[in-house]
Amino acid sequence: MRIGELSRRTGVSERSLRYYEQQGLLGPRRRPSGYREYVESDLDVVRRIRTLLAAGLSTAIIAEVLPCMVDDGERLVPACPELAVELDRERDRITGHIDELTDARAMLTEIIAATAASHPAADDCEVLDAAAGPRRRQPVAR
DNA sequence: ATTCTGACA
DNA sequence: TGTCAGAA
């Protein structure tokens, strides 16, 4: 199948599909026309990629881990032993990231408190409004 | 009609 | 990641 069909069947944009290939996550063969030719099994590969991406793994890590993962239809199951340590390391990396963000938030909270203290009537402060920005919250990619 | 690559008011 | 251009 060509990229258009894979895109429709997986719900993943053609743009992302080409990007995954650049990252070494997919290796479709080419038709003489230069068009990418995917196989049925690529459908599962793409699903695995999406799952791993949603788990917060980088494409580099996914490239290493992908061939060691098999989809039993419901969940991803590790097929290699060294995979466990690799994933555990990623988990710690993500935990570290969370800690950094938690610290950053705490510092901002203090600064905001100090600002409010010195500016009792700042409810019409354009700078603060801009800083607050459009508080939008996006759902986790799936 | 589809896909490809490269680039970004 | 979207999206548009210019070519095949």
UniProtKB/TrEMBL annotation:
Alphabetized PROSITE patterns for the sequence: HTH_MERR_1, HTH_MERR_2
HTH merR-type domain sequence ranges: 1-68
SUPFAM superfamilies according to UniProt: Putative DNA-binding domain
Superkingdom of origin: Bacteria
Single GO MF descriptor: DNA-binding transcription factor activity
InterPro entries: DNA-bd_dom_put_sf, MerR-type_HTH_dom, MerR_fam
Keywords (A to Z) from UniProt: DNA-binding
Keyword DNA-binding (UniProt): yes
Record-linked SMART domains: HTH_MERR (SM00422)
Gene3D superfamilies found in the cross-reference section: 1.10.1660.10
PANTHER family: MERR FAMILY REGULATORY PROTEIN, REDOX-CYCLING DRUG-SENSING TRANSCRIPTIONAL ACTIVATOR SOXR
Protein name from the UniProt record: HTH-type transcriptional regulator HmrR
